[in-house]
Design a protein that fits this description.
Blueprint: E1 5-6, E2 11-16, E3 19-20, E4 23-24, E5 27-33, E6 39-42, H1 49-58, E7 61-66, H2 75-81, E8 86-90, E9 104-106, E10 119-125, E11 131-137, E12 142-144, H3 158-166, H4 177-181, H5 186-197, E13 203-205, H6 216-223
Parallel strand pairs: 6-7, 7-8, 8-9, 12-13
Antiparallel strand pairs: 1-2, 2-5, 3-4, 5-6, 10-11, 11-12
């Protein structure tokens, strides 16, 4: 699976297998080098020995972000490995990990000054309690997300394919059926999508599926046309 490995741009993605209820959806983490030279980690994945070695070769981890209530499982790994890193959680995440102390709990429209010279923050709120923190890497016009959209174009095994089709997330681009079901306040969600579209992303990183290396804004607009 193609990944972004762009040291000159200060942007890397890392993918791992992940099965949920019989469906292989995979999961992806993004690492951004800030202007300070320190690293920001969005949507952490399992910190294997090899992955930690690769990260440490890139620089010092300073910020770790759990971007929504479904992408927090491996925060504990990063807290243990990088005790001086600042842990950031989107709204609702901290309750999922009561034994972990998050340094910052972010809610719309909060921003973090330490990132602003490299990434722009945006939020997707499906309800007042369910929020996803999305980043826009301004240098490369890359949108960095978790579950804002799925882009799974292939999967091994009949069971996995059936489960993905039932979730409207196989060979398609856009929010899954489960993600759509969480949208309780459509006007708020539409406003957030419009704000994300206004960033003008050319590429898009998502946790599940293939990277979108061109046409990201148009694809996202089509993927959320049903919300109009």
């Amino acid at each position: 699976m193609q990944e972004l490995q762009e040291p000159e741009q200060g942007l890397w993605t890392f993918h791992q297998p992940l099965s949920v209820m019989g469906a292989e959806i995979g999961t992806r983490m993004t690492v951004v080098r800030l202007q300070s030279g320190e690293l920001l980690v969005h949507s952490p994945i399992r910190l294997t020995t090899d992955l930690r070695r690769r990260i440490d070769e890139l620089g010092a981890v300073r910020h770790v972000i759990a971007p929504n209530r479904d992408h927090y499982l491996f925060v504990r790994d990063f807290k243990q490995a990088y005790p001086d890193a600042i842990l950031h959680a989107a709204s609702g995440v901290a309750e999922q990990l009561p034994d972990i102390r998050f340094d910052v709990v972010l809610q719309h429209p909060q921003t973090v000054d330490a990132w602003n010279d490299t990434v722009t923050q945006a939020y997707f709120r499906s309800s007042r309690k369910l929020q996803e923190l999305v980043l826009f890497h301004t240098k490369t016009k890359t949108l960095i997300s978790a579950d804002l959209a799925f882009n799974i174009q292939g999967s091994d095994g009949l069971l996995s394919q059936v489960m993905l089709r039932l979730n409207d997330s196989y060979k398609s681009f856009g929010p899954s059926r489960v993600c759509r079901s969480h949208i309780r306040e459509r006007a708020m969600a539409r406003a957030d999508v419009d704000a994300i579209l206004a960033l003008g992303a050319q590429r898009m990183v998502m946790a599940h599926g293939e990277l979108l290396l061109s046409g990201a804004t148009d694809a996202l607009r089509r993927g959320y046309a049903w919300l109009r």
